[in-house]
Amino acid sequence: MRPKEVKVGTCGWGYLRAKDYFGSEWKNKFSSVLQAYAQLFNCVEINSTFYRIPRLTTPVKWREEANEVNKKFEFTVKASKIITHLHKFAGEECLRIFKIYEEICQGLKANLLLLQTAAGFKPTSENIKNLRSFLKKIKPKIQLVWEPRGAWYDDPKQIEEICQEFNVIHGVDPFRNQPLYFGENKIAYFRLHGFGKASMYQYTFSDQELKELKKIIQSLEKKVKIFYVFFNNMTMYEDALRFERLL
Length: 247
What we know:
The protein is α/β, with parallel strands linked by helices. It has a single domain, classed as Protein of unknown function UPF0759 (TIM Barrel). It is 41% helix and 17% strand. The chain is built from ten helices and eight strands. The chain has helices at residues 18-22, 33-40, 48-51, 57-69, 81-86, 92-108, 125-138, 157-166, 207-219, 236-246, and strands at 6-11, 43-46, 74-78, 112-116, 143-147, 169-172, 187-192, 226-231. Strands 1-2-3-4-5-6-7-8 form an eight-stranded parallel barrel. Helix 2 packs across helix 4 (57-69), helix 4 packs parallel to helix 6 and helix 9 (207-219) packs across helix 10. The longest helix is centred in the middle third of the chain and has 17 residues, at 92-108. 38% of the residues are buried.
């Protein structure tokens, strides 16, 4: 039996080889790779927004493209590294850029914005102070997701306390860490990175791992209303489709 609402996609659509799924004539059917992707999946996490800030006309264009093939298609957005990695939540520039990202989300009709922090962003008193100050000042109009890494998991209670205080969903790789807070709307946000040796992304999930992922979701059904599952590994498109078939 398929668990309740589970939305499966990948972190980005740019590497999708549309001809592998729709043949060499795929451009006769779709005007862009995004449209081909939106025919295969119902959601995507935009990763390119982490590296550069798009013009505000671009997300509107993406939304229109997706609507042409899948009106129910959903975008989530990864926030700029300027906020999370460069300034590490400190200063007015972070607040200014955050407001731009709210506009980007509005253009996409996106409901979730991901803040992913680096392993180097450790739970020091200064980092905690800056993160809390940022979350207090922004007064978000959108649901935030936070994916901490590294030493935060030495004392996960700190993650849970911050997420609860500011109603921020705890985003995780469920094969590595347990989700600690689902927000007031009971949403789970999973990002699957892989376990490759040279690079964790150089990885293909086994059938057994995908079955285990389904079990993880089923174990949380009483706590969660909506699951977002985004694959972020080398074979993410194939793995996401395989997981969809398993549900």
